[in-house]
Amino acid sequence: MNTVPAESQPLAGQVTVITGAGRGIGEAIARQLSSLGATAVLCGRTRGALDATATAIAQSGGKAEALVCDVTSLQSVEAAAKHVESSFGRVDILVNNAGIGGFGGPLHQLPPDSWDQILNTNLRGVYYTTRAFAPMMIRARSGHIINISSLAGKNALPNGAAYAASKWGLNGLSYSMAEELRGHNIRVAVVCPGSTNTDLSPHAGKDQSKMLQPEDIAHAVSALVTQAPQSFISEILLRPTQKP
Questions:
Q1: Domain ranges, ordered by start, for the chain
Q2: What is the C-alpha to C-alpha distance for residues 239 and 232, in angstroms, rounded to an integer?
């Protein structure tokens, strides 16, 4: 087992909750924050993927717990928050990463149930987790909430209008949350990556080696949660160096 020197663990003793942590960006964020000393609570709908991430973190000398949670269900999210509070008594970092894509065609052809699924996961889910976990941070007068958005929340996305709408909405939600919570010493930030090599979106015609990798987003998140107390990075726009 690899051990990490204490001086390189700025998050030692902290607890982080990451949604969508079973693969891709969420998995990379969980690995990164655990390497900095945080206990990672891995939330997602698929137990097998969460367990695999938890095992990999443990093998690297980190601490992680898999917790099945569906962010589209308020009951499921509230149960997760109660479990975290009873098990750890705190939450220091909430990373809202769970999301789904929707790139199947123009908006007027999108089935209503697909609209609901995209908006409920990408936007309503962040409301649910914030509602459930922010009170613990408010009581502690400390915390970070990191919302993983997209450059699709800044630009037009033909044939992905519902996904873009969810991310434009998430950006506005994040900016407003930041103003509501900064008085409680809670910093809310949004990360907007460009083309990222994950299973979420189609990559036809793109050079995956030039795309952002999940670890790039994880690096940005680690910068946000380790910044000095007097500073506040509220938004990160992340692009590939070379267009894929």
A1: 9-199+206-238
A2: 21
Cβ pair 25, 196 in contact under 8 A: yes
Active-site residue list = 163
**Fold observed for domain 9-199+206-238:** Rossmann fold (3.40.50)
pLDDT in the model for residue 25: 97
**CA–CA–CA angle 225, 229, 233 (5° rounding):** 55
Distances (CA, A) of 47 to 22, 31, 83, 208: 8, 17, 16, 28
Pairwise CA distance, residues 162 & 219, whole Å: 28
Read off the pLDDT of residues 77-93 as tens digits, 9 standing for 90 and up.
999 999 999 999 999 99
What's the gap between Cα 129 and its chain centre?
A: 11
Token code pair at residue 18: 């990451």
Residue type, 99: G
What are the residues whose beta carbons fall under 8 Å from the beta carbon of 144, sequence distance 6 or more?
Answer: 92, 93, 94, 186, 187, 188, 189, 224, 225
